[in-house]
Structures are given as structure tokens and as C-alpha cells.
């Protein structure tokens, strides 16, 4: 593979630990130079609540409710807030920090990588664009973490359609490697989403829920066409190719990859990792 020819993986539906382990495996493979960079599109076998690396599980998450719904629960390697992965396509992008044209700034690299998402939404016929904070008030709002819910938290270079956030992403940098992953919402059950988190009282929870509905949106809520998740794969594959100015080649996991993947997967299955905070 040349530098602008990236590995492309459609890994389909898998459990939560597998999905997080495969992202980590791709970081190892890029770090070793086995592949120059990678784009992965995937789904979740069971609805899963993923929480950010720094979130406090027992303080912020209603663990009993998660278990009651039969959902999985996993801690990500990335920061950010909680995400309910259900009716969505999830993406991950893995590349070296030294990749040509990649800014050192986390904020600016987020903008570059998210250009692929922007093109993907446009491939679906949606008028997506970046919402960039410009005033002091808008920049101050970025520090206002209203709740534990990802799409309820403002960030730089948000992707918006019709004034509402349509994608949620998180990034980590480890030993010279950037990994950014996130959710492309097809539909969202707001009631179930907010049931996963703890709030001081029901009134505050309902207030946050209503604010979320005004701030965030899913593809099928605003598109004139009803999309299936299968339709999202080619749209975002081509979107990342155009947005990042790359070509992709399918990558199939080797037997050694599968062995290493199972080793990493054990970490994301463990209480030691998931309940570490």
C-alpha cells in the first residue's frame, strides 16, 4: 500500500469488546508500519452503551437500567461522553500523527478527518456543514458539559444539518498514532438513551432530554428518503476517500491478527477496565 492507499475494513456486527479491540489492533498495525492507515466501518450486535475513558461509571451510568434493557456496556479508549450504539453506522480512522498534511492540533486534525464524514452525509443528499465557534460566548460553551451524553456536549467543528448535530466523534493519540471513531446516527430512541444515565432528579433529566432533541438529529429524522444502514457503507466509504484524498484497499484480518485481537478483547471484557473509574 502506498501512503495515500489506506486499508479499508467492513467488519459488520460484533460485540462491544470486539469492536473496541479491533480499533486498538488497527492502532498497533499502523504503529508497526504493517499498514499505513485504516478506515473501518462497523455495527454492534447488541445495543451498547460506550462511555469515555475518563467518565465515572458508577457515578454517571444507571448500570441496573443498562442490564434491564439487555444492553452491553464498554469503556472506550477515547475520551468524550456516553454513546448508545444502536441504530447507527460506526466509523474509525487510524493514522500516524506524522501523516502528511495532518495538523499537530487535536482540534484541527479532527476537522481534517471529519471532512470524510462531511462528504459522506453529502453523498446521502444531506446539506451538512461544520459549525465553528467564533465568538467568545460560543467558545466558552465548549467547556459547558451539560450531561454525560455525547450528543448533548458541544465540541469544535461539529457536523450539523439544519442546525442540529448529526455525528458524534472522539479521538485518542497513543505512541504517535491517532485514532478517531464515532457514531453516524440513522435513528435514535431518545428515551432509551437518557434512561442509561443518572440525573439529580427527573425534572433535570427531562430538561436535558428536551434540549437534546433541539440540538441533535438522526439521518432518518430529516432525510426525505428512508435509509437502511446498508446504504450508509458506500456513502461513507466514498466520503472518506474524497474527504481525505485517498484510495482504499480491502484488508482481511490474518490468523495472527485474529489471535492478537482475542488477546486485546479480554481487556475490554474485564471489569478492571470497564469499572476502573
From TrEMBL:
The keyword Repressor does not apply. One of its GO terms (molecular function) is ligase activity. It comes from the Bacteria. Gene3D superfamilies: Bira Bifunctional Protein, Domain 2. Residues 33-248 form the BPL/LPL catalytic domain. CDD domains: LplA (cd16443). InterPro entries: aa-tRNA-synth_II/BPL/LPL (IPR045864), BPL_LPL_catalytic (IPR004143), Octanoyltrans_LipM/LipL (IPR050664). This is Biotin/lipoate A/B protein ligase family protein. It comes from Salinicoccus sesuvii.
Amino acid at each position: 500500500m502506498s501512503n495515500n492507499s489506506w486499508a479499508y475494513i467492513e467488519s459488520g456486527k460484533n460485540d462491544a469488546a470486539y469492536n473496541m479491540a479491533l480499533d486498538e489492533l488497527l492502532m498497533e498495525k499502523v504503529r508497526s508500519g504493517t499498514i499505513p492507515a485504516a478506515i473501518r466501518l462497523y455495527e454492534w450486535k447488541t445495543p451498547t452503551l460506550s462511555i469515555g475513558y475518563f467518565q465515572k461509571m458508577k457515578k454517571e451510568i444507571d448500570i441496573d437500567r443498562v442490564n434491564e434493557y439487555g444492553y452491553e456496556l464498554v469503556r472506550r479508549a477515547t475520551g468524550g461522553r456516553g454513546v448508545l450504539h444502536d441504530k447507527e453506522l460506526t466509523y474509525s480512522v487510524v493514522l500516524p500523527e506524522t501523516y502528511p498534511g495532518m495538523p499537530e492540533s487535536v482540534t484541527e486534525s479532527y476537522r481534517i478527518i471529519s471532512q470524510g464524514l462531511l462528504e459522506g452525509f453529502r453523498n446521502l443528499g444531506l446539506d451538512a456543514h461544520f459549525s465553528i465557534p467564533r465568538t467568545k460566548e460560543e467558545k466558552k460553551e465548549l467547556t459547558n458539559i451539560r450531561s454525560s451524553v455525547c450528543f448533548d456536549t458541544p465540541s469544535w467543528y461539529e457536523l450539523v444539518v439544519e442546525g442540529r448535530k448529526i455525528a458524534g466523534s472522539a479521538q485518542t493519540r497513543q505512541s504517535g498514532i491517532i485514532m478517531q471513531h464515532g457514531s453516524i446516527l440513522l435513528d435514535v430512541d431518545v428515551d432509551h438513551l437518557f434512561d442509561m444515565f443518572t440525573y439529580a432528579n427527573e425534572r433535570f433529566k427531562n430538561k436535558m432530554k428536551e434540549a437534546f432533541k433541539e440540538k441533535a438529529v438522526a439521518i432518518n429524522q430529516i432525510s426525505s428518503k428512508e435509509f437502511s444502514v446498508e446504504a450508509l457503507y458506500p456513502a461513507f466509504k466514498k466520503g472518506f476517500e474524497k474527504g481525505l484524498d485517498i484510495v482504499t484497499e480491502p484488508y482481511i484480518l490474518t490468523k495472527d491478527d485474529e489471535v492478537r485481537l482475542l488477546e486485546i478483547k479480554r481487556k475490554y471484557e474485564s471489569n478492571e477496565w470497564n469499572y476502573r473509574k
